[in-house]
Amino acid sequence: MSAPTPVALVGVGKIARDQHIPALAASPDFELAATASRNASVEGVDAYRDVTSLLAARPDIPCLSLCTPPQVRYGDARRALEAGRHVMLEKPPGATISEVEDLIELAKSRSLSLYLTWHSRQNQAVAAARSWLSDKTIQSVSITWKEDVRRWHPGQEWVWRPGGLGVFDPGINALSILTEIYPGPLRLSGAKLVFPSNRQTPIAASLSFQDLKGAAVSAEFDWRQEGRQTWEIRIAAVEGDAVLGDGGSTLTVDGAPTAPIAPGAAPDLDFLQGEYHALYAQFARLLAAGASDTDLAPLRHVADAFLLGERIVTAPFDW
Ligand code: NAP
Asked: Measured in angstroms, how far is the CA atom of residue 98 from the centroid of ligand 1?
């Protein structure tokens, strides 16, 4: 077995601590060699305050994994690619479509791997749902993604600033699953966005999509849900009904639970070891193949919602 590849984490915050650091500690493919973060560090790991100093000091680190908020991702990603490093990006991959397209072009021109991650796609029942849907005649898809922002993003002001996406920060996870499992193109056809009167990004959104075959596809996102949290995709097809529940970790068909992974669906991914383990395994495969994985579809739907969305103003939001 070859030695693990050194990787640097950029932005040591909530998701770096909750997921990236444990996933890297368990990874046979990577070792955490350094961090770049203005205020935080990881005990025993070489720490830099920013990406420029990290890149200058550590030419031996070929890969950077960026876990900062989307508004500040682009500059660091560009610096890393210009310095000849491979890059993995947290979701959403950036604040605009054009900055991410620029990164895709840059990575391609330098023959570097760029990985736009969508962690929810790695949930254990997503591949099974994709496999089930592939030969069905779909009548409707209804997404309900309702959670409590105070519980999941305590004090994170960036989510309310332009580029922070508001309720689309979790909502884009639902769209990443939808675009992974849906067999055919979908176009956003309408949106209602609910903005707190004192904030720049929406706290709730209703979306509808056009499917050329006539299925009714819709989504409801809400960040004001206390108590039970709901991350669910309900599918009605001529052949039966399916529910992808708990953020993509369970699938029931006509009320009966199914095995998490459908036979033959992505057998090379070990979903059971968790979303972030699967993301780093995929990054290792991309590096080995000299390839990139750059699907922008979820971000494109969000951008379209901001373009088309009716604006509704609601009560101010305070933590
Ligand atoms: P976070 O903790 O608020 O931010 C991560 C770190 O980025 C901060 O601790 C900060 O570290 C650094 N940073 C650099 N510039 C910043 C700026 N202008 N404003 C705020 N922080 C800045 O955020 P997070 O929850 O880890 O989310 C980061 C990304 O991961 C987001 O795109 C999010 O959608 C995604 N994600 C989050 C979760 C989750 O459960 N939280 C789950 C999946 C994906 P320094 O101050 O040390 O520089």
From this structure: 21
Q: Is the pLDDT of residue 262 over 90?
A: no
Together in a domain, 89 and 140: no
Q: pLDDT band at 259, cuts 50/70/90?
A: low
Query: Which pLDDT score, from 0 to 100, does residue 7 have?
Result: 98
Confidence of residue 304 (pLDDT cuts 50, 70, 90): very high
Final residue of a structural domain among 100, 116, 132: 116
Ligand 1 pocket residues where CB is under 6 Å: 11-16, 37-40, 67-70, 72, 90-91, 119, 156, 158, 169
Q: Is the pLDDT of residue 142 over 50?
A: yes
Domain check: are 158 and 237 in the same one? yes
Q: State which of 116, 135, 160 marks the end of a domain.
A: 116
Per-residue pLDDT reduced to its tens digit, 184-232: 999 999 999 999 999 999 999 999 999 988 999 999 999 999 999 999 9
- Which is nearest to 302 in space by CA: 225, 221, 185? 221
Nearest 10 degrees: Cα torsion 36, 42, 45, 48: 20
Q: Looking at the structure, do residues 145 and 259 belong to the same domain, yes or no? A: yes
Percent of the chain past pLDDT 90, that is, above it, reads 93
Distance 288 CA to ligand 1 centre (A): 28
In this structure, are 68 and 178 located in the same domain?
no
91 given a catalytic annotation: yes
Amino acid at 105: E
User: Residue 199 and residue 294: Cα distance in Å, rounded?
Assistant: 31
- Whether 107 and 225 share a structural domain: no
Phi and psi at 250, nearest 5°, equal -130, 150
Q: What 3-state class would DSSP assign to 98?
A: helix
Q: Check residue 58 and report its DSSP letter.
A: -
Tell me, yes or no, whether 145 and 173 share the same domain: yes
